[in-house]
Amino acid sequence: MRTYEVSRIDAARAVPLTGAVGGTVWERANVARLDEYAWGDDPGPETTVRALYDTEALSLQFHVEDGEITADVTELNGPTFEDSSVELFATPAPPDDGSTARYFNFEANCCGAFKLAWQEPNWRERDVGRDLVTPTDAAAVEVETSVPGPTKTASPDDDSWWLAARLPLSTLRSLTGLPIELDSGTVWRGNFYRSGLPDAQKGTWNRIDLPEPTYHSPEFFGRIEFE
């Protein structure tokens, strides 16, 4: 199981939602590499993520190599995983006994459209519902990308894109019904994913040892520690 430490910043210092790292607070963030290609023989295109937190929000910055950048989904909570996209799945209150718990998934495409849901473990197999973020709560989520929207068709010039997002804890509290707070010593379980690619090129941060891509697999979540 991999461990990622999220660096803390002063809440008074705004985290820029940009792809720049040098000369910004993103220099303080650790880098997680989505370099587990469980369904291919060769490494796929590189994807990295940085994360920072303050008392009000979790901020993410993805850098993505991509030779075919595409996006069709524009609606909130649409199937963004079908587009060039990146994802964070996380359990903000992991059980002490190691069992799986409900988790949220944030899935954003290269143009900034996103889904944010609160899932039951194995919700597909158990045929249970899931909660989707409301438009009101979603309005507080900030997403910026290097790809002008609202949609994107592939181009011969495609080679990379970035996405930066700010997830307010108030939105996560409303979605999950949990009193989520972030402080030194907080521990989540979770995983980062890359979607919108052939299976052989799909990368994950923590490896998923299953015969085919099944991102809704909290049993393979890594450890996310807050500084």
UniProtKB/TrEMBL annotation:
Q: What is this protein called?
A: Carbohydrate-binding domain-containing protein
- The record places domain Carbohydrate-binding at 27-226
One GO BP:
carbohydrate catabolic process
The record's GO molecular-function terms, alphabetically, read:
carbohydrate binding; hydrolase activity, hydrolyzing O-glycosyl compounds
